[in-house]
Amino acid sequence: MSSPVRTDPPYVPIRHTGWATRRTPLWALGVIAVMAAGALLVALAHKPSQSERASDLRAFVGDMTYDIQSCAGGVSESLTALRQIQTGASHDVPTAIYIANTGASNCSPANNEQLDDLDSYQVTESLASFRLARVVTGLVDWAAPDALDVQTDVAKVLAAPPDSQARAKAALQQALRRLDAQRAAVDAIVNSASRSLSAHAAPPRLPR
Question: Which of 51, 111, 119, 152 is deepest in the core (most CB within 10 A)?
């Protein structure tokens, strides 16, 4: 009896190439694992604690206070000189005008190295979530144009003749409102960050 005719294709053995399959050696996998673990440990080690962030916030406020204090002091002196003239405590108008004009000049970053430093200040990464860069730009704007305008307007009030006094005083009051609004915005950001970190960090003291 004859065997049945096979219809399936003939068996063809799989050919192996002469090139060996490249596999990652075990030692390399071990090195990669160690490096990944090391990177994770470094990241965890450098994550600041709340107390460290609170300390960073206090240092930040100290830097802000130092950089803005010369301009802020000029605003206080200008407003004090104006009140002394208006109340009759002083009659030295030329000196009061000089104080206001000098203070205005000192609130320009071009004339004040501390304000120039403030303009380029970089907030530490540990405080990034509080967006304190807004405080930096807010203080720069508080100085120029706001504080600069206030002191320029103080000088104008002091120099204005009687028939122009009302207009000069109205301009000064408007400039003071802008200055106060900017101060309030800066204070709100710093106070919010301080509460979050229990840092007890007060905003820079700015004239009201």
Answer: 152
- Angle between helix axes 93-106 and 148-159 (nearest 10 degrees) is 160
* Sequential DSSP letters for 19-50: SPPP---HHHHHHHHHHHHHHHHHHHHTS--H
State the greatest distance between any 2 C-alpha atoms of the chain, in Å, as a whole number: 140
Angle at 159 between CA 154 and CA 160, to 5 degrees: 100
pTM listed for this prediction:
0.77
pLDDT in tens, 61-113: 999 999 999 999 999 999 999 999 999 999 999 999 999 999 999 999 999 99
Q: How many CB atoms lie within 10 A of CB 16?
A: 8
Q: Which two tokens stand for residue 74?
A: 């000029």
pLDDT tens digits, residue range 54-66? Answer: 999 999 999 999 9
17 DSSP 8-state letter: P
